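An instance noted here:
***
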Amino acid sequence: MLFQIIRGANIYDLIAYVFAMAFVVFCTLPIHECAHALVAYKLGDSTAKNMGRLTINPVAHIDWIGALMILIVGFGYAKPVPVNARNFKNPKLGMALSALAGPLSNILMAQIFLFGLQAVNHFCDPASILWGAVYSFLYFAALVNISLAVFNLIPIPPLDGSRILSAVLPDKYYFKLMQYERYIVIVVFVLLLTGVLSTPLSWLSGLLLKAMNYIAALPFGGLLK
């Protein structure tokens, strides 16, 4: 994503992109991880809270390799929040709900950014340098939040989708899959960096962005022609 921005954007869009990525790393990722910890805590597991992860302090959550990936390809991760399924009344459901909380927080934040983008689009002049930069910031922040949600919902370890999958997959198959987590992570990194995985993920993210942007435009009379 970074290289696409560099090739096709002006200096103001590039600056807006860097600020948006910084916001995602230091604000969005902590909220994503805190959402995991909060739902797990509400469902009876205090593991993350006891380890200082029930917070939006970025120091507790940032993984610098994952942050660098967000800057370069638009997909990345933070430090996984520890969850002990044995503390849930319904372990499978508890794991699924706590895992789903992270991507849902990204979707919510993306929708908020898109409402802001539509407000700028309708009430301000995006052609001006100032509002154009604000518009670009909101767009990039929304897009990366959506991308993070889509990426994390892939049902492979260590992503959130794998924990959601555990709710429907028999234990013997799930634990067998988790045995290969270390190797799967390497494969995912390679596929992202080579574009094999990032291309279809970007396509899905773009479709979701269009749908959510349409919703965001409804209070303002719909998308401008």
